[in-house]
Amino acid sequence: MTARVRVFPSSDREVHGVVVDDFGDSVGVPVEIGGNRIAGPARRWAVMLDDDNLVFVDSHDLEAE
Questions:
Q1: Can you give the pTM of this predicted structure?
Q2: How many other C-beta atoms can be found within 10 angstroms of the C-beta atom of residue 45?
Q3: Mind spelling out the 3-state secondary structure of 5-36?
Q4: For the structural domain made of 4-64, what CATH number should be given?
Q5: Residue 58 belongs to what H/E stretch?
Q6: Contacts of 15 (CB under 8 A, 6+ apart)
Q7: Among 54, 53, 56, CA closest to 23
Q8: What does each of the 65 residues of the chain score in pLDDT, given as a tens digit?
Q9: Which of 14, 18, 33, 48 has the fewest CB atoms within 10 Å, i.e. is most exposed?
């Protein structure tokens, strides 16, 4: 999937990029290694921003361009 999106649309944090992965079934699953929680729940979408940074966001943080 390579859909162009706005991340955090209509906010002062708005950025643009391309969806590079959809983690669908993994949403809401915390990451644990060796019994230690190292991250909060997984996010639904991986988005490669136009500035070459990668962000992980939920559906409500995105809007199609």
A1: 0.74
A2: 23
A3: EEECCCCCCCEEEEEEEECHHHCCCEEEECCE
A4: 2.30.30
A5: none
A6: 6, 7, 8, 49, 50, 51, 55
A7: 56
A8: 579 999 999 999 999 999 998 877 666 666 677 777 666 666 788 899 999 999 989 889 999 99
A9: 33
